[in-house]
């Protein structure tokens, strides 16, 4: 499987699934950032292929001195991308790297008062709810931090992010500059983990003890459980970039996705 993905590393015109203009974020789904994350998600690591190690070094060339990442030489500093990159590195087994720790510290320093994370954009003329953290970005950040040995002080900060996401389960309205909401699309099982959706939401939050006895999390978990058939995870809304792969075919059992479902069940029993 990895050979098929590696062979497509020039599909977007640049090296390591980037575009000709150096953009590592587009096209969404099969960009440099997404592809490395999916490779880690389906079980590959930095030691499995030299191309993966080289691609990781390539992404590090986009890191700023303070620790965040840009997706192109002229792009803004976006916490969503930094979090997705660090989460992807975690999946690939990248450890004991001071450059990653700089990113973790940058994310902690950029947490907003409502407990979540977001870019600084506020869309004028929109609802006041746009001037809130982004649930999707916050989910990415919490995903990234589950690979780190967090201090109690840092964990307390992260738990504020957990509560922010649990509050979103209650209000469900589109909030934040990118208008992340909980509607019919969110409730469809999506795999691999790329976008804000029920499966990804429950999976990440299951790693945080603060959710264990929370009725909001239990409700989300039960709604996901109702969609799992005989303990088998079946994608309902896979991203089109990966739909040809067995782990992401709509309506068919995803063996790797099923492993994540069992991880959730294990986490909530701890």
Automatic annotation (TrEMBL):
CDD domains: ISOPREN_C2_like. It comes from the Bacteria. InterPro entries: SQ_cyclase_C (IPR032696), Terpenoid_cyclase/PrenylTrfase (IPR008930). It holds the Pfam family SQHop_cyclase_C. Residues 34-168 form the Squalene cyclase C-terminal domain. SUPFAM superfamilies: Terpenoid cyclases/Protein prenyltransferases. This is Terpene cyclase/mutase family protein.
């Amino acid at each position: 499987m990895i050979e098929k993905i590696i062979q497509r590393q020039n599909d977007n015109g640049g090296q390591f699934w980037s575009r000709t203009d150096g953009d590592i974020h587009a096209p969404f789904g099969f960009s440099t950032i997404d592809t490395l994350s999916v490779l880690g998600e389906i079980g590959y690591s930095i030691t499995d292929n030299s191309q993966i190690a080289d691609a990781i070094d390539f992404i590090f060339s986009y890191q700023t001195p303070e620790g965040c990442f840009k997706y192109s030489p002229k792009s803004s500093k976006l916490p969503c991308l930094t979090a997705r990159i660090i989460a992807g590195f975690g999946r690939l087994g990248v450890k004991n790297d001071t450059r990653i720790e700089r990113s973790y510290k940058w994310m902690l320093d950029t947490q907003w008062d409502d407990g979540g994370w977001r870019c600084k954009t506020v869309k004028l003329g929109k609802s006041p709810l746009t001037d809130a953290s982004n649930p999707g970005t916050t989910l990415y950040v919490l995903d990234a931090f589950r690979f780190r040995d967090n201090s109690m002080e840092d964990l307390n900060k992260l738990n504020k992010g957990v509560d922010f996401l649990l509050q979103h389960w209650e209000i469900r309205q589109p909030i934040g500059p990118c208008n992340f909401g909980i509607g019919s699309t969110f409730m469809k099982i999506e795999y691999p983990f790329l976008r804000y959706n029920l499966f990804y939401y429950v999976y990440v939050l299951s790693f945080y003890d603060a959710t264990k006895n929370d009725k909001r999390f239990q409700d989300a978990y039960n709604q996901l459980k109702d969609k799992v058939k005989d303990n088998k995870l079946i994608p309902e809304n896979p991203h089109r970039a990966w739909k040809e792969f067995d782990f992401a075919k709509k309506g068919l059992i995803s063996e790797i996705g099923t492993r994540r479902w069992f991880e959730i069940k294990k986490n909530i029993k701890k």
